[in-house]
Design brief:
By secondary structure, the chain is an alpha/beta fold. The protein has one domain: Rossmann fold, CATH 3.40.50. The chain is about 45% helix and about 10% strand. It contains 14 helices and 7 strands. It has a 5-stranded parallel sheet, sandwiched between helices. The radius of gyration is 21 Å and the shape is elongated. The two termini are about 35 Å apart. Bound molecules: 3'-phosphate-adenosine-5'-phosphate sulfate. 3'-phosphate-adenosine-5'-phosphate sulfate binds next to helix 3 and helix 8. The site of 3'-phosphate-adenosine-5'-phosphate sulfate (PPS) has 19 residues, from helix 3 and helix 8.
Length: about 350
């Protein structure tokens, strides 16, 4: 795909393809609501055009979604949304349905998905948005999205669930939210245990199962945080992401940016927000046993959905196992001895 002007993708088209491109772009660009988009997207497209919107990055929170977003918006065939983390569909179109007002739908199309720029490029750029809490609304959002934008491709990133829950906890503390679980104790154990419970925000199986029911394998892509953030596996993980999205995998680079990076940069001493968290050995062991069970379920779901081959799934589980073993290796002797827990 040519990477110069936005319309480069149409340069080599035959007259019929140009006509088709024009008709598709005109129909999509005229849409102010979701019904119109659904109908317009049924029209034939010319090569190089994408359905609108083409994809969404839906979570999980604290799994490098901002870096993934920043990588993707540098791609010449990706349409920069006007806002990251709009959470428009869950906060403005709810509760529990995509029955947004006409005004809301129009705002979403124009102001979040950035229709004006997508239309100027004749929909040769893949429009998307990234809202990391979407994945958590698994009871109703996948069903609504699959009905509204049945072509949509969905990207999910997963991180060792203990690290993800800790990073989320840190985020909440920094935003003065949800810190009740540490009241009366120094340990974050209770917060993390709560987050890992079935149905809670870091219990991946209860969230991803519903997305898997509604979106077939070709439309749902899972990334592993530990894989995409490691130098030696980053390029491969980014290549599969862009191949899944139908984008030139060589662009914009094979490097994931480092955005929204907190766990090393908070400089309030080693025990303060960040570097490591202190837990008792039995607490950490308990969390690891819960995370291990959750991981077994997650990997089984990924296997059933055809998201990855057996070897890849074994590597996936092993990467998280290494994080837990490293942390357990930093515990002092004794059941209640302190462990220095570092997130992945
Ligand atoms: N390239 C790279 N390498 C290593 N780690 C990275 C990278 N990019 C993002 N991150 C880490 O991802 C965490 C932020 O994730 P999100 O952007 O999804 O967070 S958010 O939910 O949108 O707030 C956040 O983790 P914590 O620092 O533990 O909070 C970032 O440090």
């Amino acid at each position: 795909m040519p990477d110069g002007s936005p319309l480069g993708a149409l340069d080599t088209h035959t007259p019929e393809q140009r006509q088709q491109a024009e008709a598709f772009a005109t129909a999509v660009a005229a849409c102010q609501d979701f019904d119109c988009l659904r109908q317009a997207n049924e029209l034939p497209r010319a090569p190089g055009q994408f359905r609108f919107p083409h994809f969404m990055v839906i979570g999980f929170p604290k799994c490098a979604t901002t870096s993934i977003y920043c990588h993707l918006i540098q791609h010449p065939a990706v349409q920069h949304p006007k806002e990251k983390e709009s959470h428009w569909l869950t906060q403005r179109c709810g509760p529990r349905s995509l029955a947004c007002s006409n005004e809301s739908q129009q705002h979403y199309i124009q102001e979040i998905l950035n229709m004006p720029e997508a239309a100027a490029a004749k929909i040769t750029k893949a429009a998307f948005e990234g809202s990391t809490h979407y994945v958590l609304e698994s009871e109703w959002l996948p069903q609504q999205l699959a009905a509204t934008f049945p072509w949509l491709r969905v990207v999910v990133s997963l991180r060792d669930p203990i690290s993800q829950a800790i990073a989320m906890h840190l985020h909440n503390v920094m935003h003065a939210r949800d810190s009740n679980c540490t009241r009366g104790t120094d340990s974050i154990y209770h917060c993390i245990r709560k987050a890992l419970k079935p149905g809670s925000r870091s219990h991946y199986p209860s969230k991803i199962a519903d997305w898997m029911k509604l979106f077939p394998q070709q439309q749902l892509h899972f990334m592993q945080y530990e894989n995409v953030t490691q130098q030696d596996s980053m390029a491969g993980e980014l290549t599969s992401l862009k191949a899944f999205l139908g984008l030139d995998p060589a662009l914009p680079s094979s490097q994931l940016p480092l955005t929204n990076y907190k766990h090393v940069h908070t400089g309030h001493g080693p025990d303060a927000l960040g570097r490591y968290w202190v837990m008792k050995r039995w607490e950490l062991e308990h969390l690891v046993s819960i995370a291990r069970n959750n991981t077994r379920e997650t990997v089984e779901l990924l296997r059933q959905h055809g998201a990855a081959g057996q070897q890849q799934l074994e590597r996936w589980a092993a990467a998280w196992e290494r994080v837990w073993e490293d942390n357990l290796g930093r515990c002092e002797e004794g059941r209640s001895a302190p462990c220095k827990v570092i997130v992945s």
